[in-house]
Amino acid sequence: MMRYLTVEEVILIHEYVLQLYGGVPGIRSIALLESAVHRPVTSFGGSDLYLSVFDKSASLIHAIIKNHPFVDGNKRTAIVSGIVFLRMNKYKLVVSEKRLIKLALDIADSEISLDDLSEFLKSYSVFK
């Protein structure tokens, strides 16, 4: 059974990321945060829109970066949330921090599609 992050868990991840790397605390929009966190469970006509664990993680990362719900640290929070989501569902992302930074910037600049992001996560993940 798939496990999903809650809004509260993503807020804790955000606080942790700010402790590690610095930044301005605060939520810019709780509605945008809720929308981003609930995106992986989106369905239509009783069918999930995001089928695989990688699709779901990609949708979470993408939504946090694009929705920009926090005052600061959105890209960092998005990447760490995606990694935590994968780990909760028995996958470990094995990729350099440098590559993850580029990935987050590419998402923010709309240079990578959601499908390509999902494929990236799949190609750099190992089952635990």
Provide structural commentary.
The chain is mainly alpha-helical. It has six helices and four strands. The strands form two sheets. A two-stranded antiparallel ribbon has the order 1-2. Strands 3-4 form a two-stranded antiparallel sheet. Strand 1 (43-44) and strand 2 form a beta hairpin. It is globular and about 35 Å long. It starts with 6 loop residues before the first helix and ends with a strand.
What's this, in brief?
The protein has helices at residues 7-21, 30-38, 53-67, 74-88, 97-108, 114-123; strands spanning 43-44, 47-48, 91-93, 125-127. It has 128 residues and is mainly alpha-helical.
Topology, please?
Layout: H1 7-21, H2 30-38, E1 43-44, E2 47-48, H3 53-67, H4 74-88, E3 91-93, H5 97-108, H6 114-123, E4 125-127
Antiparallel strand pairs: 1-2, 3-4
Organism: candidate division WWE3 bacterium RIFCSPHIGHO2_02_FULL_38_14
Protein name: Fido domain-containing protein
GO molecular function, one term: kinase activity
